[in-house]
């Protein structure tokens, strides 16, 4: 069985972790999609795009060589789209090159993880062999626009096999897009174990941060609920004056954050892209991570935190309760509930034994148990066999 796995940079954190295990069991080639707009996303941090258009070897990007510690170098390719818009001639030729390579590769399954843009519609020529992982069955409120809806609609009509990463949205997804139930499979996310390649890295940029802080990280969009967490920290600070919140990641919504953070020493803002070498250190030194989202599907933030067995406080939206099982891996609170958010943070900071129990449960389940990549990849291989 021969698999082509195609995915963009903004999902590279999950892909690297999954493929590290999957490539040890089945013949999988990894095709990482790069464009001028997604050079710094998730695990990938590229300063300047290679000018060559088309499918390249991973050696054409020295910044990606570090990932050959978890991905077979000879099965790692770059789909280097140098076009500057979704209908660019350069983009079309890039995906035509990819199509030819896939045809010549004689793959049994083409597994992709995000809808192709207009220039990539040519890829649906291979739809009979395709299966799509649907990371967002329904768009987040912060990017629910006509363009995103249109490319999703094309993908869901062109392809017949899908993998969802949470059970909560499965029935609605099938009904809304009028899909065959037997063609929609279930899988899940494991913890982002690839981060451990940075365990020996120490970044002096965070020298002034003492371990034990509360951490929120990732791109800060309007649906992430950061404003509710900031309000909750006011209450936490009154009860535990030593508590500190670190908010790390690029802010991508119109919120007057700088005015809010002024004269609040218990909140530390890092408003920029955080490379993984720094992110790993931030997570390692945190006490708990918080995802106060207003809507969600899954969360790569939670899976990054679980790579270091860090308990999480998450809101009761989308598939988050499946990931952060309440009172087992952390706490689940209602969205937009400032008091519940603050009380959960205070409880975990006060109860060291409870934190240790949650850490043990995460390690036992996500590293060794049913949520480990070993189990997830075995089930994925079964799905491949079924669609073949």
UniProtKB/TrEMBL annotation:
Which GO terms of type biological process are on file? lipopolysaccharide biosynthetic process
Q: Which UniProt keywords apply?
A: Transferase
A single MF term (Gene Ontology)? glycosyltransferase activity
Phosphoprotein as a keyword? no
- Domain (Glycosyl transferase family): give its ranges: 207-364
Kindly name one Pfam family recorded for this protein.
Glycos_transf_1
Per its UniProt record, what PANTHER family does this chain match? GLYCOSYLTRANSFERASE WBBK-RELATED (PTHR46401)
State what protein this is by name. Glycosyl transferase family 1 domain-containing protein
Q: Which organism is it from?
A: Bacteroides cellulosilyticus CL02T12C19
